[in-house]
Amino acid sequence: MSKIGVTLIGLGPMGQAMVRKLLAAEHAVTVWNRTASRADALVDEGALRAEDVGAALAANTAIILSLTDYQAMYDILGTATDALSGKVVINLSSDTPAKTREAATWLAGHGAELVTGGVMVPSVLVGEEGAYVFYSGSRTTFDRVQPMLKVIGRPDYVGEDPALAQLYYQAQLDIFLTSLSGFLHATALLNSAGVSAASFQPYAEDNFASMSMYLGDAVKQIDSGEHPGDQASVVMMGATADHIVGASEEAGIETGLPRAVKAHYDRAIESGHGADSWTSLIERIKKP
Ligand code: NDP
């Protein structure tokens, strides 16, 4: 059986990387991009250029979108809604869960189905070992396009709600972005005493590597709602959070991040959870 053809709209770094992997796997790929010149190299490499959005949609049933946000989808597909009926739109663009659900309704109104996705690697790693993508939406529809999607990374289907893939994506980026800022803040603290980032690196690496060790017990406590703090209590860790704020003030560096962390501990202590473990902070995070 020949491989299904696919249309890819949105040729930023991600879209371009996906087109190249799909071509390498011998899928026929039709491309369209607002700035047409971004398709030139891909056409030289074997992609088919659609002259307009209507032609891009007409070329295939499977339509991958790799755009800045969901507004870009409306800006593009809104110009050719007559061509949407029967299409499977696989939107791999980032946006909020609510906007994702609205898009599913909008597409259904035009006879198309939405599969949402969040790509969990940078463009240079698309389709490489370890690359994966969260997907959600109709399972039946997803199964129709899954073999083709394997080319860009391991497809991890997370549920029927189209917003779920976005939430998983954002949860991963929530950890990633917060951790990166934490690392930079810690480095700035050491820089204030003349310590270089390179000197700190082995210790920061050790810290990141050991972080996942805590998760096994943490998820049990979070899911059960039981937070025994016999090994390390909120009061003890809150005192450390306070010391980091003090150290940051003394160093003259930005204090917003450590103050936000300290606030979690302060509120847990104020509400009588000082003897619990740090996992009980999740209740304060859920009810700001
Ligand atoms: P870019 O911002 O480089 O590309 C975005 C694409 O969207 C371009 O093709 C651009 O067209 C198009 N676009 C944006 N707004 C509009 C609009 N209003 N109308 C028409 N077209 C529009 O993004 P990336 O390729 O880096 O990323 C694409 C998606 O993948 C994003 O949602 C991003 O969050 C996600 N992602 C990116 C990663 C990365 O490492 N880059 C990693 C994981 C996910 P034009 O060329 O004309 O400007």
From TrEMBL:
Record keywords: Oxidoreductase
Signal peptide segment: none
Family from the record: Belongs to the HIBADH-related family.
Name of the molecule in the record: NAD(P)-binding domain-containing protein
Superkingdom, taxonomy of origin: Bacteria
Domain NADPH-dependent reductive aminase-like C-terminal intervals: 161-287
Segments forming domain 6-phosphogluconate dehydrogenase NADP-binding: 6-154
